[in-house]
Amino acid sequence: MKSNKKKKMKNNGALRCPYCGGTVVYRSAEGIYKDNSKDTMLYVCSHYPACDAYVRVHPGTKIPMGTMADQNLRSLRNTAHRHFDKLHKDGYMTRQEAYMWLANLISAPLSQAHIGYLGEYYCNLVIKESDKLLRTKQAIRKSKCEV
Ligand SMILES: [Zn+2]
Fold it and tell me: How confident is the model at residue 54 (pLDDT cuts 50, 70, 90)?
């Protein structure tokens, strides 16, 4: 009988590049970031720049902020973050509430509810649903003002 127990690869960003399978190197963002005055450290695909997948670490740690992403996914995540951040930056909810909403949206535990973990599909979902929620909240705020 075949075992269905597939070994789950726990990739904390430090093993293989999800794009090309290359090894991943822990290094400074020097030469990758135009301005690395903050001395950012990255996990970078060893095939850089042919493969430009990388991920930042939390400052002062070796813990990646998410999963490795190429240029497309990085810019999509940035966009998703801007849309998502409006939810709490405009005072419609607290930061905590916004992350709880995100966790619920992507069906992930709160500890994993970070844009940095999301792929293309969920980034687009976050953009769409953040905007939808924002419009609803704006409409409510507006109707309260008009009363
Ligand atoms: Zn790669």
Answer: very high
Query: Which two three-digit tokens encode residue 54?
Result: 């990388």
How far, in Å, CA of 51 to CA of 44, rounded?
9
**What is the domain count for the chain?**
2
Cα 77 to averaged position of ligand 1 atoms, centre (Å): 18
Residue environment code for 28-62, b if the CB has 16+ CB neighbours within 10 A, otherwise e: ebeeeeeeeeeeebbbbbebbeebbbbbbbeeeee
Q: What is the pTM of this model?
A: 0.82
- Token pair of 145, please? 């003002």
Q: How confident is the model at residue 8 (pLDDT cuts 50, 70, 90)?
A: very low
Strands 54-56 and 24-28: unpaired
Q: How far is the CA of 137 from the centre of ligand 1 (A)?
A: 41
Which range marks the domain in which residue 62 is found? 10-68
Inside any domain, residue 1: no
Residue 144, both tokens: 């309260």
Beta-carbon-side half-sphere exposure of residue 143 (alpha carbons within 13 Å): 6
What's the gap in Å between 40 CA and the centre of ligand 1? 19
